Amino acid sequence: MIENVEKVVVGKRKEIELSVIALLSGGHVLLEDVPGVGKTMLVRAIAKSLGANFKRIQFTPDLLPSDVTGVSVFNQKTMEFQFRPGPIMANVVLADEINRTSPKTQAALLEALEEGSVTTDGQTRELDSPFFVMATQNPIEYGGTYPLPEAQLDRFLFKFKIGYPTKQEELDVLNRVEKKHPIEGIKPVLTLANLVEMQKKVVDVYVDETVKRYIINLVNSTRKHQSVYLGASPRASIALMKAAQAYAYIQGRDFVVPDDVKYLAPYTLQHRILLNSDAKLSNQTNERIVQDVIDQVSIPVGNETAR
């Protein structure tokens, strides 16, 4: 599947791999990057590789919660209300420029991201399974935007950037799109049933007690760091463990090692902490603080991680 997506998104294997990890662990991804680097192509290629039902939501200031979740419409023939599902009712959803809509509409995503369901007209409706959301936001243009609150950021398993390609990679992109776009030639390599079965296997990946303690030590250190106003929540510990299980699975292992946790910690923790005013004044960043935490927390080695 990773190789299939690479036919469209050139030179971004790590970012594709992180997206697949999120997919396998039942999490969601927030992409923060400038326009034109392939954010939409990434999620479209993932959807086509699965043969999944794909929907795109373009978030705008006038978008209503019902535009996302769906609405009940009165049918004059049957004299009954009929529910018309919104774009959130899909297997793979692109929430494009999520920070351009109002907090009320942003909040409509909270239940979907965490519970896998939406509530409309007082009725809770289960979403399709598997369910994967990739949200994007532009870090450059802040005019008319509504920054995502901490509660919503915490619902995303990963936050990362795609970044610009190298000159050679950009040349490869030009060659691939010269005649037609490679997204048109993408064929499914997995079924949704395959994915659900893999997700079940990911849950069975063994996590030793010492690895769990390492995860807890990392998350707890973000709460005690002198530059942090609000540290990562227990949800971050759960997210890091589940992501590590998925990463071990795609590496062909049935157990998690501390290096899995260390590798995924930056993408899992950076968006879950808030810096204090002193740290902001000294131009510190979430990325630097999380790396500082990773460097300070000792890694269990040797017999400590033996199964």
UniProtKB/TrEMBL annotation:
Coiled coil ranges (UniProt) are none
Q: Which SMART domains match?
A: AAA
Report the InterPro entries cross-referenced here.
AAA+_ATPase, ATPase_AAA-3, CbbQ/NirQ/NorQ/GpvN, ChlI/MoxR_AAA_lid, P-loop_NTPase
Q: Which residue ranges does the record assign to the AAA+ ATPase domain?
A: 25-166
Kindly give the Pfam families that the UniProt entry links to this protein.
Answer: AAA_3 (PF07726), AAA_lid_2 (PF17863)
Q: What is this protein called?
A: MoxR family ATPase
Which organism encodes this protein?
Evansella alkalicola
